[in-house]
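Bumping with the actual sequence this time:
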Amino acid sequence: MIRRATSFLITLGCLLGLGLITPSISDAQMIITADQDEPVTDARKAEIIDSVAALVNRMYVFPDVAKRMETAVRKKLKAGGYKEFGNMMPFMQALHKDMRDICKDGHFGLMFDPNPKPAGQEASPEMEKAYLEEERRNNYGFKKLEILPGNVGYLNLLGFTPSDIGGATAVAAMNFLGNSDALIIDLRDNGGGDPSMIQLISSYFFKNSVHLNSFEERGKDTVQQFWTSLGVQGKKLIDAPIYLLTSNYTFSAAEEFSYNLKNLKRATIVGENTGGGAHPVNSYAFPSLKVSARVPYARAINPITGTNWEGVGVKPDIEVSRDKALAVAHLEALQSLEKSSTDDARKREYRWLADRIASENNPLQLAETELAGCAGKYGPRLITIENGRLYSQREGGPKFELIPMTRELFRFGGNSADYLRLRFQRDTSGSVTGVIAVFQDGREEPFPRQDAN
């Protein structure tokens, strides 16, 4: 929801004023090196606070909160609370923190800016060109496309670039994914962007036009609404289950996308609670003071909840750590597809794949003595134990590790094709008497043990 601003925060490689995926102000400050810092007088501190207070009172989305921010920093200034800061950078960091602590708004920020761009001044053609080139080299946020086992589509999306810039890439990506039976969209490293791209991507998930979100701007009587489009280029994924992966880094527009689809009951959120930034923001600058600011000026209003995710984030439906989110979502997708399928062969395929993922997520450890009891000759297959691991090898063929899924059932490790597993048979005493080759298509082929146990 960070819209393209008319002014720049600071000059960075990613051009934060135009860029849509922005670090927090506190992170951005660290980019300024010590030799760019400069001394600050008490008079200049007072002037900065006067200017910033006037700005937030005029623009911040909640006037009462703006007033509390002003009151807090003026009180601290009067009490000598900023006396210890002799340079601009630490003073601005302290001022930023004090005001952020009051508003608790992840989009709000202040910073020392050695070369601020005057507010209202349009970006130069050179800067606009640099921004567009950077977006192109980042593939407009579309990092990875893949079809996972079970025909589950996967999109790793790093940001929501405006649709007038990244729309063609988005359409190409959605067409690549258009034949998927389910879809996973990875937002774990997505810091935000533009609502127009949210509209475009979301339009592939609904048959009819759907109200996604609204923005209410301070001081205006009108509310800006965002709806999906009836028509898209390519197929829609109307019936495909959708899973969104989130982390505590997921922020702003990525949160809106998650919040919209969650409340429309169109997606399952898997991962961590998101960052909690729901307010559109504009950038401002005070060139003579060498100060830049980001000030939220509006609030999101979800048509279903009547509120938004500001300060609380989007709570996942399935809460897991970010590193496990993809595997968990893939498993959930396969289980959902198995449940909804009416084709027995397809059901077996989904169950086969789901069992493997479940095994990978929760690996089973068997004692070496248990594994040793499985070693032996079974038809053309020799099973051995080496360094506490079980291996299978057909005559003249490569050797593959056998990984336990249960005490009896083993899958093949390494780069082997996952169409075959081995299930060991035991007698009443627990001794292994044979092995059954279990195929994905449901066939089974037994091989009795040929050596003494």
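The tokens above came from a reply further down the thread. DSSP finds eleven helices and 20 strands in the chain.
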